[in-house]
TrEMBL record, chain A:
One of its GO terms (biological process) is nuclear mRNA surveillance. It is found in: Nucleus. It comes from Dimargaris cristalligena. This is S1 motif domain-containing protein. Belongs to the RRP4 family. Pfam families: ECR1_N, KH_6, S1_RRP4.
UniProtKB/TrEMBL annotation, chain B:
This is Ribosomal RNA-processing protein 41. SUPFAM superfamilies: Ribonuclease PH domain 2-like, Ribosomal protein S5 domain 2-like. Its main location: cytoplasm. Residues 21-151, 155-219 form the Exoribonuclease phosphorolytic domain. Gene3D superfamilies: GHMP Kinase, N-terminal domain (3.30.230.70). GO terms for biological process: nuclear mRNA surveillance; poly(A)-dependent snoRNA 3'-end processing; rRNA catabolic process; U4 snRNA 3'-end processing. CDD domains: RNase_PH_RRP41. Component of the RNA exosome complex. Specifically part of the catalytically inactive RNA exosome core complex (Exo-9) which may associate with the catalytic subunits RRP6 and DIS3 in cytoplasmic- and nuclear-specific RNA exosome complex forms. Exo-9 is formed by a hexameric base ring of RNase PH domain-containing subunits and a cap ring consisting of CSL4, RRP4 and RRP40. It comes from the Eukaryota. InterPro entries: ExoRNase_PH_dom1 (IPR001247), ExoRNase_PH_dom2 (IPR015847), ExoRNase_PH_dom2_sf (IPR036345), PNPase/RNase_PH_dom_sf (IPR027408), Ribosomal_Su5_D2-typ_SF (IPR020568), RNase_PH (IPR050080). PANTHER family: EXOSOME COMPLEX COMPONENT, EXOSOME COMPLEX COMPONENT RRP41. The keyword Membrane does not apply.
Length: 297, 245
């Protein structure tokens, strides 16, 4: 394709202007791999694009996005790519020297360094060799952790930390896996649902649903941070956890973004169905309809 | 095999197609929920399912490449895919050959350098075999990779062509392929730049006929690309609607 028949700056700018004036119904430019985006050399190529003979070409099927002079293409379905400060839920896969490897549903395993965890009891000191030998007493293979992304390595690997009482080992609950695109960044990712259930929305698509634990109780008893034993869970708490977990599964099947209000609405709508039916197509679409109607009102 | 008339005097082939006609092509993306990307591809009676997992942590340490992603292709033939029900072992040479042809084709087009120390797994299942397995596998993989959001410089489309009684014919089916007198070749091209990533031929073809056979196959690739592109666009539009902004 010659460069002459490509859109120039002007229509591109117009499209951008349109997008700002109507953010919801704005014009979205869809591209497929190998499709030229612009031949204007004023633009810089971003993720999902490459340059050939001065033409910016898409490498993905997705939506064209523009920030100032940077042109990127965003694929709708892609693996989780971390950003510093994201709250994630992960599973310990192996132990290495002074660090744990953590499955974060990303393109590589994440790394949790021994130096970026809190010691039980909140003791502040450098980690010694004896701590290194006791690593399995903190986190062992298969344990689930909630953590924050501390930094990203040059090759895209993620380093996480648990240096806060909010973060650490997970217990008293169940894991739900959904597409990462359905979880959006927000001020908090820790929610207490009124029915006595806590939900942690990991940005990597791993969601932890557990029985409610008073945050003050954790602070009062910092020794228990690395406990492997569940607290006593009543039958009612257990069914509520299961119901909320299945509500989240139902919402994700219907492509509704997961956040606290959506979960509460879905929980209310689900009460007239048995828990095991929530993941069926007919029930989940019924719930989704109710949730969508409530979210819009 | 008894001599069968592959091309009638009226210029029709055994399945009623003209010489330069493709078989009916149907494809669909996002058919599996567990996989990162998936596609179903059907060309005539040849049916392939492709699933992509990754980029993810390499399963083996030895597969870790420091500068790019490792691409792994596994191809399986369903026991019920042919007339004669037969279980194929994993080490079957023909199967391994197709898998490595697909891998080599895509290594040149996947922008693997953006995923160092990762692995991209491609799993291909042949559900029904009516000739043209390599082309169906390549086309299904293209669609599944696009669905998985893995960057590629452009589409790769593959198509086969052969020669029956002095006439170049497009997209051979199983009967035409297995006839001794029909030379056939499979070509995989990038339709926009016209680059060839795979050219496979296992029989003798007169050199003077190579060029028009290749041209015909390339023309078929372009037709397939148009079909695939419309499917990809529709699927992307659908995903934009589902996942929102």
């Amino acid at each position: 394709m010659s460069t002459a028949d490509l859109p120039d700056l002007a229509p591109f700018e117009q499209a951008a202007a349109k997008r700002t004036e109507a953010t919801t119904g704005g014009e979205t430019q869809l591209v497929t791999p190998g499709e030229p985006i612009t031949s204007n050399t004023a633009f810089m190529r971003g993720h999902g694009t490459y340059v050939e003979e001065g033409v910016v070409i898409s490498a993905l099927a997705g939506v064209v996005e523009r920030i100032n002079k940077l042109v990127t293409v965003r694929a709708l379905k892609a693996r989780y790519a971390g950003e510093i400060g994201d709250v994630v839920v992960g599973r310990i896969t192996s132990l290495a020297e002074k660090r744990w490897r953590v499955d974060l549903n990303s393109r590589q395993n994440g790394v949790l360094a021994l130096s970026s965890i809190n010691l039980p009891g909140g003791v502040q000191r450098r980690k010694s060799e004896s701590d290194e030998l006791r690593m399995r007493t903190f986190f062992a293979e298969g344990d689930l952790v909630v953590a924050e992304i501390q930094s990203l390595y040059g090759d895209g690997a993620i380093a996480i930390h648990t240096r806060s009482l909010k973060y650490g080992k997970l217990r008293n609950g169940t894991l739900v896996t959904i597409p990462p695109a359905l979880v959006q960044r927000s001020r908090t990712h820790f929610y207490a649902i009124p029915c006595g259930v806590d939900v942690i929305l990991g940005l990597n698509g791993y969601i932890w649903v557990s029985k409610h634990v008073d945050p003050q109780a954790i602070e009062a008893n910092p020794e228990e941070v690395y406990s492997n034993v569940n607290d006593p869970i009543t039958a009612e708490e257990r069914t509520n956890v299961a119901r909320v977990a299945n509500c989240i599964r139902a919402l994700s099947r219907q492509f509704i973004h997961i956040h606290d209000t959506a979960i509460v609405y879905a929980y209310e709508a689900s009460l007239r169905f048995p828990i095991s039916d929530l993941v069926t197509d007919s029930v989940s679409s019924e719930i989704a309809m109710e949730v969508r109607a409530k979210l819009q009102s | 095999m008894s001599r069968q008339e592959l091309l009638s005097p009226e210029g029709l082939r055994i399945d009623g197609r003209r010489a330069n006609e493709l078989r009916r092509t149907v494809c669909k993306q996002s058919v599996l929920t567990q996989a990162d990307g998936s596609a179903y591809y059907e060309q005539g009676n040849t049916k392939v399912l492709a699933a992509i997992y990754g980029p993810r942590e390499p399963r083996l340490r030895s597969n870790t490449l420091n500068d790019r992603a490792f691409v792994n292709v596994e191809f399986k033939v369903a026991p019920f895919s042919t007339n004669e029900r037969r279980k194929r072992s994993k080490g079957d040479r023909r199967i391994l050959e197709i898998a490595s042809a697909v891998r080599q084709t895509f290594e040149s087009v996947i922008v693997a350098t953006v995923y160092p120390r990762s692995q991209i797994d491609v799993f291909l299942h042949l559900l029904q075999d009516d000739g043209g397995n390599v082309q169906a596998c390549i086309n299904a993989t293209t669609l599944a990779l696009i669905d998985a959001g893995i960057p590629m410089t452009e589409y790769i489309c593959a198509c086969s062509a052969g020669y029956i009684d002095e006439t170049p014919v497009l997209d051979l089916n199983h009967t035409e392929e297995s006839s001794f007198e029909t030379p056939d070749l499979t070509i995989a091209v990038m339709p926009r730049s016209g680059k060839v990533t795979l050219l496979q031929m296992e029989s003798r073809l007169e050199i003077t006929r190579l060029e028009d056979t290749m041209l015909l196959a390339t023309e078929g690739c372009k037709q397939i690309q148009r079909i695939m592109d419309s499917v990809v666009r529709e699927n992307t539009r659908d995903l934009v609607e589902k996942y929102g902004q």
